[in-house]
Structures are given as structure tokens and as C-alpha cells.
TrEMBL record:
GO terms for molecular function: serine-type carboxypeptidase activity. It comes from Theobroma cacao (Cacao). InterPro entries: AB_hydrolase_fold (IPR029058), Peptidase_S10 (IPR001563), Ser_caboxypep_ser_AS (IPR018202). Pfam families: Peptidase_S10. It is found in: Secreted. This is Carboxypeptidase. Keywords: Carboxypeptidase, Hydrolase, Protease, Secreted. Its EC number is 3.4.16.-.
Amino acid sequence: MQADKINALPGQPEGVGFDQYAGYVTVDPVADRALFYYFVESPVDPSKKPLVLWLNGGPGCSSFGYGAMQELGPFRVNSDGETLYRNEYAWNNVANVIFLESPAGVGFSYSKNSSDYTSVGDRKTAQDSYIFLINWLERFPQYKTRDFYITGESYAGHYVPQLAYYILARNKNTTQTVINLKGIAIGNAWVDDVACTKGLFDFLWTHALNSDETNEGINKYCNFASEDSLTKKADADDNPIQCGKYQKQGLLELGDINLYGIYAPPCYTSALKSGSTGNVKNYDPCAEYYVNSYLNLAKVQAALHTKATNWSGCSDVGWTDSPTTILPEIRHLAREIRVWKYRRQGEDVSLEWALKKLNQFSADRIILKVKRYLWTMYYYVSIFNNYLRIDIII
């Protein structure tokens, strides 16, 4: 534990009142496969706060580079690529948060067996993440009985439910630590190929990001019915070649617009030179470039206790195992733990279709309690108000 403690990250602001740790946890000693983590404790009463694991998606994208450094972590990177400023809305204000780079090959995580980079998938990722947690809790035993939550976004709609499902199964038959899993939360999550693809292209068309011609082609040639559909009838003629053609056209029509924030400006070279404001309330579309520069500094990697690595936000891992739907796992989890899904307006609504499908999955329906809260997107405060949709599955 103490060997992983970070005295201070290079360029961090003064007055940091919480402990932070980083390093590797071995998940396969034979292959020398190890996963990198970054852990931040809460600045106030960390012993009374829950433990949260955050996972980004991809698959193959870094929970540290995106989740910690651009979204919910305690710091953001300035435009100089060398200094940090505080994120006043960081999740470690209310919890102790682990950011895990998984699977091996993503970010700083590595394996000495090259096949681990070319043959990986959901099942292996869940197993490695579970082993990581068991070994991490041995390193931080004070968290063994702490309330534990798994959270994430995008393809973590696969990671989070599958890891939770695996934990619950192992908890019932293990001589190792029983993980005190209380719930999961997934944002803008990809949980069902059919429902999420339909939701994505419906979103693009209803927000004037796709042409009528493209939308008509998708609805005509793409079969969005699945084996789990109650009707078991196709919505349109099933023509995979034409369907693929129109879907590709739909993504091309999106252009430089950020699918995860369609009202956000793109990053231009001039913006890179102009510099950030050092204020988390002012959205910076170039933040990804600042993070890439920062995490490739030798002094930063030394502070994080990593191997010398050419770090990148997303890696080209060979994905061989990706179920078409995770809804059965979510349905099972909802019987045992709390399940929370969320998205905001301005992001694609593919998850909406998946939750509708979940509620129709069988006669044994899950009750969805939906609450809507009016909120304001902090970096567009002068433009429009927004809604955050929260669906609690009980």
C-alpha cells in the first residue's frame, strides 16, 4: 500500500487534502499480466465513505485518461500539458474511487504474453477485473468490508454488469474475500446491440444529424427485431449490405460532432494554442490532447509508479468475445443489488431503447421507476437548460 502512495503528482495545485495511490496489481503471474490503477481517497472521513470502481468503455479505452483526468477525477490537465487544476465536482468528494485500466494492453496495463493483446474479450476482462479487486483488497485491507459500487459509461455497459454478475457468483462459492457489492451505475451504456444501434440512429435523425434519405434507408434495410422481441417480426427488409451502407453514411454525416456531447464545440489547432482557463466549468474540447501530453511525461509516469510506456487514451486490442446483449445479466442483478442507469440530453439515447427492451424481456417484468430532474449543464449555462434522466431498476 505505502509503496503505491503518490507523494504529489507533477504540477498538481497546492492544498491537496487527500491521499492518492497508483501502481500495478498482478492478475496472472504466469503471463506476467498486470492492471494499472489510480486510487483517490475522499478528503473528508474516507473511513466512512463507500468504495467505488470506475470503468470507461471502448472497448479498449482508459478509465484513468478519460474517467480520472477528464471526467470525475480530482484533477484536470491545463493546456500546457504539464500542470493540473482541481475539479471541484470530483467524485472523491463523496467516495473513495478506483480508476482501473482494463484489460491488459489499455493505458499502462500490460502483459508479457502478446496474445493477451490480440485475444481478449468480455469474459476475460471480467475475470481479470475480479482478480484485480481481490488482490487490491489484500493491499488495502481496510476496504474489505466497505460498501462497494461499480460504475462506468459506454461499453462499460458490458464491463460493469458482467463484473457485478461474476462477483455475486464468486461471493457464493469462495474461500477468498467476499466483496461487499451494493450496486452498479452505468451512464449512456451500450448494453444491447440491436436496441442501442436503433436508438443511436434514431437519435441522429431526430437531432438533424442525419438526412431523411439516410434515415429512410436504415429503417428500410436494417432489421432491428431480435430473437427476444415479443413479436419476432422484422421492422424492415433484412438486407445487411444495404443496412451497412446506410449506417456508414449516417456516421459520416455526423462529421466532427462529438457523439457524447453534440452541442460541444470541436477541438481545432487554434484552440490548442489558445490555452485552457483552468476552470472545470468551462468545457475544453481539447482536453484529451492535454491529458495525452501529461501522461507521457517521464516524471509523471515515475510518480504513478508505471513502466515507461507510450501511453494512449484508447488501444487497439483484439476483441473476440462480446455478447450481443447484457440485458439478462442486468435483469438478474436487479433482483439482488441496486441498478442505476443515467444519461443526459445531448448524448445519444441508445440506452433508452435498451431499457424499453429490458422491460419487455419476459413476462417476469422488472419494474422501472423513472425520475426526471431539471439540471443545468454547467458549461452551457447561458444557452439552455437540460434534463438528466435517471432510471432506477428495482
